[in-house]
Amino acid sequence: MKSMVTRRILNQIYKNSDAINIRSSIKQTRKFCFVSKNTDLENASFQHENYRQRGENLHTDEVLFEMFKNKETGLLSIGKFLNALRATGLRKTDPRLKEFAGILKTMAKGNTDGYSVDVQKLNLNDFKSIITPNIGLISRAFRRQFIIPEFQEFCKQIEEIYWKCKENTNGKVASYIPQLKRMSPNYWGVSICTIDGQRFSIGDVSIPFTIQSCSKPLTYGIALDLLGSDVVHKYVGQEPSGRNFNELILDHNKKPHNPMINAGAIIICSLIKTIARAEMSLAEKFDYTMNYFERLAGNDDLGFNNAVFLSERECADRNYALGFYMKEHKCYPENCTFKECMDFYFQCCSLEATCDQVSVMGSTLANGGICPLSEEKVLKPESVRDVLSLMHSCGMYDYSGQFAFKVGVPTKSGVSGALLVVIPNVMGICLWSPPLDALGNSCRGVQFCEELIKKFNFHLYDNLKHAANKVDPRKHKFETKGLNVVNLLFSAAAGDLPGLRRHMLNGMDMSLPDYDGRTALHLAAAEGHVNCVDFLLKQCQVPYDIRDRWGKTPLEEALTFGHTAVIELLQLWDEQATRSIPAEEDPPIPGMG
Ligand code: GLN
User: Fold this and answer.
1) Domain range for 188
2) More confident residue, 208 or 27
3) Residue 210: in which H helix or E strand, if any?
4) What is the distance between the alpha carbons of residues 286 and 299, in angstroms, rounded to a whole number?
5) pLDDT tier at 279 (50, 70, 90 boundaries)?
6) To 10 degrees, what angle do helices 135-142 and 40-53 make?
7) How far is the CA of 261 from the centre of ligand 1 (A)?
8) Which of 12, 115, 331, 439 has the greatest CB tally within 10 Å of its CB?
9) 58-98: pLDDT as tens digits
10) Ligand 1: does its nearest atom lie under 6 Å from the Cβ of 349?
11) Beta carbon of 413 within 6 Å of any ligand 1 atom
12) Do 408 and 449 share a domain, yes or no?
């Protein structure tokens, strides 16, 4: 009898490529058996598919119950179920699981025997009543339909990068105000939230810090949403300044270069204050903006650090100088109250959030303005696109050009040591570590980004198909294998020699068979593509006499379809092989001149 692991993998393979044959599956199974871990989650998703495949008319909740129930008692352990759910990236605190968490809480309260709810065992009906309100999300999680299907594997790699960067003790904590100066240089946190709300956090992820310049893309997004890009860009440009973030400089139109530097952000604040919602009082406007930020963070409560605000205002000679310089050049909208605008800018810098919260803000930006957790449309997709474009070109102060080149994902840094990283359509990341490099970016944060991009193909210009040495965590590992076999066989059937070469360079096993045991050599021979047959035999050294499920060899295929050149080549190869002539002494290719 096949082991559980074996059956699971076979099932995954059947599921993910209709074109893969049992023989190849068994072959792959042998390979995977050594690397797979028999986790609850893997078992769960295997069994889920198993039921689906068998066409049993079970509802999803029943299937889930079957997966997790104890075979002897027939009861399901909540703890085991919650662990498996967490492994998919979902948290119990996810607002989309509100009802589920609510019922668990009630159960815990009703637990008079002192045991935690995790050890509670449920029968099918109780289990159904718990998960039914949120069955859609839970079912997607176990079907591995999230953007990062192998979430645990991905997190392991993130953790490795985290520890590597922790050793980096370069940089100095910002010291222009005492509140920032007091920050420990040892703080280091990384939080991730994907566009499907999968969460991962490590390190100091629950300590609030002031978001400082990470507020700039957010206020810019709000201004775009409220006023539209045309109005906003009457007042501020889209060019990198190539200068320091608080440099006393305007562009050739006497406008601030972009909204990611201080001058531009001050103007954006003046637009939100003066043009948008002009009827609101100062206090209302602050609440309104704070509320926007909170909605970006999935309706979590953010803080406001009054001491930082007061300090920022006191130590703001340069920002005031910038403000007056822009006043001289009539950069502000009409009716703007200069002092109030400056205060509003300092207030936005003094908003407090944790790494976890900022990662959710990033995920909202990665998800076109819809917060993955609250599912609320906070910003319009076109506003988000503009925000990301400028984060990409101007988000890292004077390092922006190099960062866009090396890392290639929209990112904004702040003097508190935070980095808001957005991988469009995938995830938001917040990195926080106070020591800054000479250009004002978090040393550990920048290193983390560089390491991340070395490993995963997240750079906007990484090729998703052919970046052979990088991992694409968006793909299911089995799906990738199955699709590659199908592509390989299509190339062979079409006589696409460059396509075959590409597969070989990508390190593919060129003798992999499809569902019917057909290999690239079978197809190239049957279609009479002698150059492909030659390439597969000589360069790839594929076995020449492999049989498909009907017992046919590539030579028999060529004979059936009368491809003389291929027949001669395969027969020569056959003779050589039986005489054991080394492969270097290749016969001439008949019909190839
Ligand atoms: N409060 C800071 C300032 O305006 C924010 C700048 C920053 O984070 N780079 O100077």
Assistant:
1) 155-464
2) 208
3) strand 209-210
4) 16
5) confident
6) 100
7) 9
8) 12
9) 577 887 898 888 888 999 999 999 999 999 999 999 999 99
10) yes
11) no
12) yes
Check the CA dihedral 86-89-92-98 and report its sign. Answer: negative
Q: What is the pLDDT of residues 546-575, one digit of tens each?
A: 999 999 999 999 999 999 999 999 999 988
Task: Examine the fold and report which residue of 142, 177, 204 is the final residue of a domain before the chain moves on.
Answer: 142
The verdict on residue 304 lying in a domain is yes
Please tell me whether residues 161 and 16 are part of one structural domain: no
Q: Give the number of the atom of ligand 1 that is nearest the alpha carbon of residue 265.
A: 4
CATH number at residue 174: 3.40.710.10
What spacing in Å lies between the alpha carbon of 96 and ligand 1's midpoint? Answer: 35
The alpha carbon of 349 and the centre of ligand 1 are apart by a number of angstroms equal to 7
Same domain flag for 163 and 306: yes
- Asked if residue 150 is part of any domain, the answer here is no
Domain annotation covers residue 149: no
d(CA 331, CA 319): 15
26 CA to centre of ligand 1 in angstroms: 59
Please state which of the ranges 29-43, 294-308, 507-521 shows the lowest mean pLDDT: 29-43
520 membership: H or E segment, kind and range: helix 520-527
Could you tell me if the CB of 213 is within 6 A of ligand 1? yes
440 C-alpha to ligand 1 centroid (Å): 10
CB of 415 sitting under 6 A from ligand 1: yes
Is ligand 1 within 6 A of the CB of residue 212?
A: yes
Q: Among 91, 112, 142, where does a domain finish?
A: 142
Q: 319: Cβ below 6 Å to ligand 1? A: yes
Q: pTM here?
A: 0.74
Q: Do residues 74 and 124 share a domain?
A: yes
Lowest-confidence region among 44-58, 195-209, 229-243? 44-58
Could you tell me the CA-to-CA distances from 134 to 128, 185, 361 in Å, in that order? 10, 42, 23
Position 476 confidence tier, pLDDT thresholds 50, 70, 90: low
Among protein residues, the one whose CA lies closest to atom 4 of ligand 1: 262
| pLDDT of 37 | 37
Ligand 1 pocket member 358 (CB < 6 A): no
For residue 10, being part of any structural domain is answered with: yes
**Where residue 507 sits, what CATH number does that domain have?**
1.25.40.20
Q: For a pocket test of ligand 1, which of 183, 260, 262, 320 has the largest count of ligand atoms closer than 8 A to its C-beta?
A: 262
How many domains, in total, are found in the chain? 4
Residue 495: the pLDDT is: 95
Residues 443 and 351 in one domain: yes
245 lines ligand 1 (CB under 6 A): yes
- Cα 299 to averaged position of ligand 1 atoms, centre (Å): 25
- The count of other CB atoms within 10 Å of the CB of residue 121 is 16
With a 6 Å cutoff on the Cβ, whether 262 touches ligand 1 is: yes
Counting residues of the chain whose pLDDT is more than 90, the rounded percentage is 68
**Rg, Å, the chain Cα set:** 30
214 C-alpha to center of ligand 1: Å? 9
486 and 435 both lie in a single domain? no
Predicted local confidence at residue 143, as pLDDT:
82
- Output b/e per residue, 563-575; b: 16+ Cβ within 10 A: bebbbbbbebbee
104, 29 contact by CB (below 8 A):
no
**Statement to judge: residues 208 and 274 lie in one domain:** yes
Q: Are strands 418-423 and 411-413 parallel, antiparallel or unpaired?
A: antiparallel
Distance of alpha carbon 176 from alpha carbon 244, whole angstroms: 16
Chain mean pLDDT for the chain? 86
Confidence of residue 478 (pLDDT cuts 50, 70, 90): low
In this model, does residue 16 exceed pLDDT 60?
no
CA of 215 to the centre of ligand 1 (A): 10
State the pLDDT at residue 113.
64
**Mind listing the pLDDT tens digit for each residue in 314-348?**
999 999 999 999 999 999 999 888 999 999 999 99
